[in-house]
Each structure stands twice: as C-alpha cells, then as structure tokens.
Specification:
This protein has about 120 residues and is of the alpha/beta class. The protein has a domain of about 80 residues. It is built from three helices and four strands, in the order ββαβαβα. The chain is globular, with a radius of gyration of 15 Å.
Length: about 120
C-alpha cells in the first residue's frame, strides 16, 4: 500500500528541519533515500509526482550517483512534472562555506548539510 495518494504530489527531498514549502511533502534522507529506489516505491507510484525540489542535494553526489538519482526521479515524475535543483553559490567567497558545499563531499560530518550517504 502506498503512503501517499493525492492528485498533486510535490516533494522536497532532504528537506531539513525548516518547512517553508506548505502543501509539499517534506522528506528526509533516512526516509526517502535518493539512491534507493525501494524507498520511493514504498511511497509513490511511477509517474505520480508533479514536482520535486532538491536544494543543496546534488552537489553531495558523485557524477555517477547524480545520474542514477536523476533516473530515479524521472521514473516517479509525471510526464508533465519537473524537478528543481538548487546549488551552492560558487561566487560566495567564504572558505568555510565553500568547504562545506564543495562538489563530491558533504563538508564536516557534524554540519547540518552533511549527507548520510557519505558518512557510512
């Protein structure tokens, strides 16, 4: 049985503690793992999601993981659905910030943006 059934499904992946998207399903990495299709299958039908929001997510993935995640998202998006990916600002000249959001790494393990994927 699917947990989510509604006409307009909009999902925030790896949402964090702040819920600033009313009407969207807020998910965390431990409940909807981008790299584990079975966590998606337990909640959603294929071609059922209208929109996926992923901010500060893709930069924590390797190139190959990013391609795999895009395929998973595509499977669950409606034909007219879309995904929005937000990325860190490369022009923000702060060494601490740049280290935390660098490509291929989550930065310090204790940071709120740290990915569970790369801490295992």
């Amino acid at each position: 049985m699917l947990v989510t059934k509604q006409d307009e499904i909009k999902v925030v992946v790896d949402a964090g503690a702040l819920n600033n998207n009313p009407g969207w399903i807020q998910t965390q990495e431990d409940e909807l793992n981008l790299l584990d299709k079975t966590t998606w299958e337990s909640r959603f039908d294929n071609n059922s999601i209208s929109a996926i929001l992923a901010e500060h997510v893709w930069e924590r993935l390797t190139y190959e993981e990013g391609v795999d995640v895009a395929k998973v998202c595509y499977k669950f998006l409606k034909p007219s659905g879309h995904i929005r990916c937000g990325f860190p600002d490369v022009f923000f000249q702060d060494d601490t910030y740049q280290n935390i959001v660098k490509v291929g790494g989550p930065g310090p393990k204790g940071h709120p943006a740290a990915s569970l994927i790369h801490q295992l």
